């Protein structure tokens, strides 16, 4: 059994308090390989931002659970070596069973998500409470994120046919009954790179303009549980320049559309204190990999292919920390 403290990690309690009072959101970036982790740590150290490293159950299967744990430990040491210790959280993204949450906690995660949002309300309450009781009873107090409302879209093994917005009336009751440390809500964000159907959007110069997020729901939630940490999933912006680069070099990503960055910036200033960004990183890496392979057909050294992709990813995360989340210079 490993405590996250042995790995040099922290839970989310203090970080969320500071994020709410400071009017910014913590970046939650997914990783499953070395180049992604290097880009995240370099960007967050250089911008002096705290960071939540997210691992999905799919990533654990892909990369091996022990390897990932030791990569997170290495990330703490890497940040230190770069000259600035930043708070680093290792978080399970979309845990679907009690057993998976326990396994992650026992192997050094400092935070877990239990996603019971697809269950009937009472079952979601019972499952979330069970995970909280286990995680909070540990000497090192592992934090737990729950979810109410269902997001549309596809992300790893998470899929929901259609979005059901969070009911603000349920939020207060859910938090009280479960003791959960933070809550993911559904206000119109969505997993994946095609967050809305074209018919839900306006079209300007061939580019899809999505419907705005439901800030009225967020405000109602904030009124009912003031100062409580709210989480947004599915918050990539799907930059058009990456989509166009991917298509220019042979890819095909029709009808891609994300959440405009100014709406995320607005959300980050509210009780939203964790914003999940995964698809944008996937797009940045894929765009550069396609470009390099097309422009240098004789290249076969993976470092010359993945290295530039890593550099682009670092640029993307630096931009997000400074201009979207407002988390720069908070660590
Ligand atoms: Zn998610």
Can you tell me about this structure?
The structure is a single chain. The chain is of the alpha/beta class. 46% of the residues lie in helices and 17% in strands. The chain has 12 helices and 13 strands. It has helices at residues 13-22, 34-46, 57-63, 65-81, 98-106, 121-137, 168-178, 215-224, 240-248, 261-268, 279-295, 302-325; strands spanning 26-30, 51-56, 88-95, 111-114, 143-148, 152-155, 158-160, 182-185, 190-191, 202-204, 207-209, 230-232, 272-277. The strands form 3 sheets. The chain has an 8-stranded parallel beta barrel, surrounded by 10 helices. A 3-stranded mixed sheet has the order 7-6-9, with no helix packed on it. A two-stranded antiparallel ribbon has the order 10-11. Strand 10 and strand 11 (207-209) form a beta hairpin. It is globular. The mean pLDDT is 94. The structure holds zinc ion (ZN).
How large, in whole angstroms, is the Cα Rg?
A: 19 Å
Bound molecules: zinc ion
Span between termini: 29 Å
State the shape: globular
Estimate what percentage of residues fall within beta strands. 15-25%
Q: What would you call the quaternary organization?
A: single chain
Helical proportion? 40-55%
* Largest sheet entry: 8 strands, parallel, barrel
The overall pLDDT average reads 94
Unreliable segments of 5+ consecutive residues? none
**Secondary structure tally, helices:** 12
Strand order of the largest sheet: 1-2-3-4-5-8-12-13
| DSSP strand count | 13
**Could you spell the SSE succession in H and E letters?**
HEHEHHEHEHEEEHEEEEHEHHEHH
From the helix content, strand content and strand pairing, which structural class follows? alpha/beta
């Amino acid at each position: 059994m490993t405590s996250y403290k042995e790995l040099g990690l922290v839970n989310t309690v203090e970080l969320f308090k500071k994020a709410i009072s400071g009017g910014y959101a913590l970046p939650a970036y997914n990783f499953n390989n070395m180049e992604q982790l290097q880009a995240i740590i370099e960007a967050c150290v250089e911008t002096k931002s705290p960071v939540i490293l997210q691992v999905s159950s799919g990533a654990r299967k892909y990369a091996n659970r022990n390897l990932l744990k030791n990569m997170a430990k290495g990330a703490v040491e890497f940040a230190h070596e770069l000259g600035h210790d930043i708070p680093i959280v290792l978080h399970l993204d979309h845990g679907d069973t009690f057993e998976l949450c326990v396994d992650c906690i026992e192997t050094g995660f400092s935070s877990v998500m239990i996603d019971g949002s697809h269950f009937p309300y009472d079952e979601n309450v019972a499952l979330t409470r069970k995970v909280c009781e286990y995680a909070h009873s540990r000497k090192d107090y592992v934090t737990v994120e729950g979810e109410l409302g269902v997001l549309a879209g596809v992300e790893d093994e998470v899929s929901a046919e259609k979005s059901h917005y969070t009911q603000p009336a349920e939020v207060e009751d859910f938090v009280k009954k479960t003791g959960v440390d933070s809550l993911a809500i559904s206000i119109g964000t969505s997993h994946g790179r095609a967050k809305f159907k074209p018919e839900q959007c306006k079209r300007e110069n061939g580019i899809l303009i999505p419907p705005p997020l439901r800030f009225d729901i967020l405000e109602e939630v904030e009124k009912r549980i003031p100062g409580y940490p709210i989480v947004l999933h599915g918050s990539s912006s799907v930059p058009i320049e990456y989509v166009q680069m991917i298509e220019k070099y042979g890819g095909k990503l029709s009808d891609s559309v994300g959440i405009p960055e100014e709406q995320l910036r607005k959300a980050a200033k509210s009780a939203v204190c964790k914003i999940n960004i995964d698809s944008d990183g996937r797009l940045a890496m894929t765009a550069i990999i396609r470009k390099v392979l097309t422009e240098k057909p004789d290249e076969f050294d993976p470092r010359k292919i993945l290295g530039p992709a890593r550099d682009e990813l670092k640029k993307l995360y630096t931009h997000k920390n400074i201009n979207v989340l407002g988390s720069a210079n908070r660590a």
